[in-house]
Amino acid sequence: MRGSCRTFAFLAAAFALGPLPACLTITKTVKPSEATVTAAPGASDFASFPKRPGLLVRKNPEAKIELPAAPMPTPIEPVTPPAIADVHVVKAGNPSPLPAIPSATEPDLLAALKAFLNNKPNDAIDLLKSLDRFNQDFTLALMPLLVRGAQMNLASANPEEIALMVQQLDGLARRLEPRAALKVEKVTFCRKFEGFGRFDPWHEAKPYGQGDLALLYFEVRNVGSEPVPGPRGEQFQSRLAVNIEVRDAQGNLVEQTDPNDFRRRVPIFRDSVSQHTRSQIRDFCRIYRISVPTQPGVYTVTVEVRDPGRHRVARSQPVRFDVAGQ
C-alpha cells in the first residue's frame, strides 16, 4: 500500500510539469581561466583547454574560415646536360664499335724478322742499324737460319742443306767463342797420351812413388784463335798462360820444376802457350810432366788458365793424387 502511494505521487508531479522536450540541452558556463584562445596565424577562431591538451573547440562553428593561400614555389631553371659525342654513345638496337686502342710501336727486331719472312732483307738491315755493329752482324747472320729452319722439315731435310746450316751456325759460334768464358775440363793423370781426348787414365787407386814424374792432362774450352800469321804459313794463333799448383794435405804449396829451367824449383808451375794453326780452333788440350813430391801423403793439383788478350780466367777443381812411402 505504501509503494502504490509513491507511484501515484510521481505520476501526479509529472503531469503537473507538462510535456518535456525531446532533447535536453545542458549548458555549462566556462570560466575565463579554463578556456584559452590560442592566437595563431589563421587559427583565431579556435580555443584550447589547458586541462585537456590537444582539444580545440571552435568559438563560432558557423563562421567560415579562410586559410591563407600557400606561397607559390620558386620556379627551377632546367639544367642542360653537357653534350656527349655520338662516337661514345651506344644506342639501343644499334650499338656502335668502341674506339680503337692505339697499339704500341712494334720492336725493330720483330719488324726485321717479318722483313726476312717477306723476303726483304734490305729492310731488315735498315731496321737493325740502331744496334751495335757486333750485334748487327750476329742478328743478321742468325735470322736467315731461323726463318729457314722454321720453314723446312728438319727431320727429313737434305743432308747437304743440314750441312750448310751447321756451317753457318759454326761461324756464329766462332764469333762468340773469343768472348765466352774459359773452361778447364778433364784434369786427370794419365799413363799414355796420343791427342785431344785420346789418353789412358792413371788408375786412381794406384799411388805414385816418391820423386816420380806424373803425366797431367787437361782440356781448355772456348779458347778461340785470332788471324795472326805463323812462322810456317799458319793463319791463326791461340795464346794462353797456364799455372799449375800442387798442395799437400795442409794446403801448403809444393815446389815444382821450372818448365823454362829444369835446374830451378818454383812454388807454382808457370807456362806460356802460343799455338799457331792453319785453321781456327775452339778447344785444345795440354799435357805436362810434373814432379811428384818426395814425401809420402795425400796431394792435390789445380790448373789455372788465363787469356792475356781478353783477361779471361778459369780455374779447375783440385784433383787428388797419392804418394806412397818406401
- What is the helix fraction of residues, given as a range? 10-25%
Number of strands: 14
CATH topology of the domain at 183-323: Immunoglobulin-like
CATH superfamily (homologous) name of the domain at 183-323: Immunoglobulins
Describe what this molecule looks like in 3D.
Helix 2 (about 110-115) packs antiparallel against helix 3 (about 120-125) and helix 4 (about 135-150) runs antiparallel to helix 5. The chain has helices at about 1-15, 110-115, 120-125, 135-150, 160-175, and strands at about 35, 45-50, 50-60, 185-195, 200, 215-220, 235-245, 255-260, 260-265, 270-275, 285-290, 295-305, 310-315, 320-325. It contains five helices and 14 strands. By secondary structure, the chain is of the alpha+beta class. The N and C termini lie far apart (about 175 Å). Among the domains are: about 110-180, no CATH class; about 185-325, Immunoglobulins (Immunoglobulin-like, Sandwich), CATH 2.60.40.
